[in-house]
Design brief:
It contains eight helices and 14 strands. The protein has helices at 3-13, 24-34, 40-47, 57-67, 73-86, 181-190, 241-247, 254-260; strands spanning 37-38, 90-98, 106-114, 117-121, 131-132, 146-151, 154-159, 170-179, 203-206, 211-216, 223-229, 232-238, 264-266, 272-274. The radius of gyration is 18 Å and the shape is globular.
């Protein structure tokens, strides 16, 4: 990643370019708060029959700086690892597979190598502080428990969502912590079929105390923004598309991009529908 672009990204999220491992916490928390995990860019690629984005960190950063649109995990790891690599960190990419028979889902997170330790920076499942990659490690985010646990000879990576029974994490098996740029390009191609289906708008960010997500109502008549804290879940409903996108932090061009991606529909009379998720 060019130094000027790395500096611009850090300036926009409000942190200095990280220099030491101790600087990673502020950088990671600022990134997960402001750069969303969302479905817009992938949905557009699938609609246009192109490879889902994520392999090009410059493309990811340019898009976010211009529109506020983020991406799925592959785009985040490419951009974050590219920026940290430009800052002198030894970065690789971790690969998880969701432990379910229902569907195939691969997931990525940044791995920063610090001597004999590895630190996970996961945008999709924020751990609050960077999480050391070892059994027994637990995240610090108060509203979104994340951990690594041993399962025989393999390592599991788990999270507990507010939509699931408390205390019952959903687990991924850690397949590797040594993916490189070529591997990321390959998994972007695999993401055409496996991974986030991008059938509707989905948005996720983390502040230090809460998880924020946005998704359509079941009938498509509104976009629901949820704020999840240790005190519970609050919801706001937005029927106006511009107001909804502003509430999620998007900028100019994001609505048009979501419309081109088929995530927002307008009737001839101008009525807006947020396309709801299709049944599995």
């Amino acid at each position: 990643m060019p130094d000027a672009l790395a500096d611009e990204m850090c300036a926009r999220i409000g942190v200095a370019r990280p220099v030491t491992v101790a600087d990673l916490t502020a950088f990671y928390q600022a990134w997960t708060e402001q750069v969303p995990f969302d479905s817009i860019a992938k949905a557009l690629a699938l609609r246009e029959c192109t490879r889902p984005p994520g392999a090009d960190p410059v493309e990811f950063c340019d898009r976010w700086l211009a529109t506020g649109v983020g991406g799925t995990c592959w785009g985040h790891v490419s951009a974050m690892a590219g920026l940290l690599g430009a800052a002198g960190f030894d970065c690789q990419v971790g690969l998880d597979r969701l432990l379910t028979d229902e569907f195939v889902d691969f997931h990525a997170f940044v791995v920063v190598v610090d001597g004999d330790r590895q630190w996970a920076l996961d945008v999709t499942h924020s751990s609050g502080d960077p999480l050391v990659v070892e059994a027994g490690a637990e995240g610090t985010h108060p509203a979104y428990p994340v951990s690594f646990e041993a399962d025989g000879d393999r390592l599991l990576h788990g999270y507990t969502s507010y939509s699931q029974t408390p205390g019952e994490p959903r687990w991924y098996a850690v397949l590797s912590t040594h993916l490189d740029a070529a591997d990321v390009r390959t998994f972007c191609e695999i993401a055409r079929v496996h991974g986030m289906r991008a059938q509707s708008l989905y948005h996720r960010r983390f502040t230090r105390l809460e998880m924020i997500d946005g998704r359509p109502a079941d009938d498509g008549g509104a976009l629901i923004r949820r704020r999840v804290t240790t005190d519970g879940v609050s919801e706001d409903r937005f029927t106006d598309v511009d107001e909804a996108f502003a509430a999620l932090g998007y900028g100019v061009g994001a609505v048009a991009m979501a419309e081109r991606a088929g995530l927002i529909e307008r009737s001839p009379a101008g009525a807006v529908r947020f396309v709801p998720r299709l049944p599995d």
